[in-house]
Structures are given as C-alpha cells and as structure tokens.
Amino acid sequence: MTIKLYGAGMSTCTTRVLACLHETDAEFELVPVNLLNSERKQPGCLAKNPFGQIPALEDGDLTLFGRAMSTYVAEKFKSELLRTQNTKGGALVKTWMEVESQQFSPAVSPIFYQYYIVPMQGGSPTQTIIDDNSEKLSKALDVYEKKQSSSKYLAGDFYSLADLHHLSLIYYLMKTRSAKLIKERPHSRHGGKIFLQGLLPRIWLPV
After folding, report:
1. pLDDT at residue 184 above 90?
2. H or E element at residue 5
3. Crossing angle (nearest 10°) for helices 127-148 and 186-193
4. pTM across the whole model
5. Which of 104, 114, 162, 206 could hold 9 in an S-S bridge, CB 3.0 to 4.6 Å?
6. Coil, helix or strand at residue 154
7. How far apart are alpha carbons 169 and 112 in whole angstroms?
8. Distance of alpha carbon 187 from its chain centroid, rounded?
9. Residues 148-157: contacts with CB within 8 Å, 24+ apart?
C-alpha cells in the first residue's frame, strides 16, 4: 500500500519527510494541503494531526505526525540512516537528531518564517525577529562548527537521518541574507555544501 503524505511543498516540515521518502526510494503520494485557507484546521486534517499542523503521514491504518514520520520511513525502508545495527552510531544519530529539533530548528524556523511566509501574507519581515534568532543560530552553529571540524557528517563519517533532518531549513536559509552565518564558518559551510550538492539533486524541493 502506498504511503500518503498530507502536506505542502513550501512547508519545511513537509520537505523534511519528502527528503526521507525520496532517500529511501519509498512509494508515496503527496496529498496537497492548502496553507493559505487554513485547510489544516478542518476536521479532515485534524483527524490526521489533532494539533492542526502539517504534515501527516498515513501508511495503511497507521497515522503519524511530527519527526516520528521520517524515523518510521527510515526504519521501514532504509535502517542504515539510523544505524540501528550499531549501538554507538545509532546513539550519535539520535543525539544530533535531537540537537536539530531542540537547537537548530527553533532558531532557523522564525528566520524562515520572516523571509518567506510573512511576504506571502502581504507583510514585511521584522528585522528584530531575524536578528534575535540569528544570534541564537550563531551560538548553535559554533557547536556545529566544532563538530564538523572532526567528522564529515554530524554523527560520524556516514550520512544519517540527523543530516537529512537539517536539509529543508538549510536549503531555504542559504537563499537568504542569513546564509552568511553558515558561509562565514568554514566547516559549517562545508557541511552545507554537502547537503546542497550531495542530496538536493536526488530529491524534490520547490525552487
């Protein structure tokens, strides 16, 4: 049975799961959800994600939301992304997946929102929000810089779900003035280059 992913191409949360689906060569159908008319708040979408957010994933009688979606896809189709056969490697993958969700994403998401979503809604970006979160991101990237000075990827010398989880936000960040935060750090810049040149040609993302 084909997996169904309910989401929107502009949503970085949706593209995070799309990246994983493409990386694992899973068969799936993207079911578009209109963000501009609050379709995600309608009963049909709330039945899949009760928090009124996207995306949501259906695989037969299983419905998931949040980062559990990409973890599930990796476990089902390409477990090496999680290093499940290696206790140490698997623990490092989980560590950097948590860093992404707790440190990286909370800093980058507001920047993404100001640069992309606010103009779509007819507004102008609030520079103080960009600056405040750029400061948070800068502190997080200092940690990434140190890590990437000693290993090719976040969990070691192997590509994992931890790296993939950063893809969608880095993709958009590199198209903004805030890209300088990565470009000014040689090892983070190298990591960003790996994400953009290594995986992007193999997946679908809106341009």
Report:
1. no
2. strand 3-7
3. 90
4. 0.86
5. 206
6. coil
7. 8
8. 20
9. 148/187, 148/188, 148/190, 148/191, 149/187, 152/194, 153/191, 153/194, 154/92, 154/96, 154/99, 154/191, 155/83, 155/89, 155/92, 155/93, 155/95, 155/96, 156/89, 156/92
Which one has a higher pLDDT value, 93 or 153?
93
Neighbours of 73 (CB within 10 A): 25
Residue 128 in this model has a pLDDT that exceeds 90: yes
State the DSSP string of 22-86. Answer: HHTT--EEEEE--TTTTGGGSHHHHTT-TTS-S-EEEETTEEEETTHHHHHHHHHH-GGGTTTT-
Can you say how many angstroms the Cα of residue 157 is from the centroid of all Cα atoms in its chain? 20
- How confident is the model over 100-114, as a mean pLDDT? 96
- At 101 the pLDDT is 96
Asked whether the bond before 55 is cis by omega within 30 degrees of 0, the reply is: yes
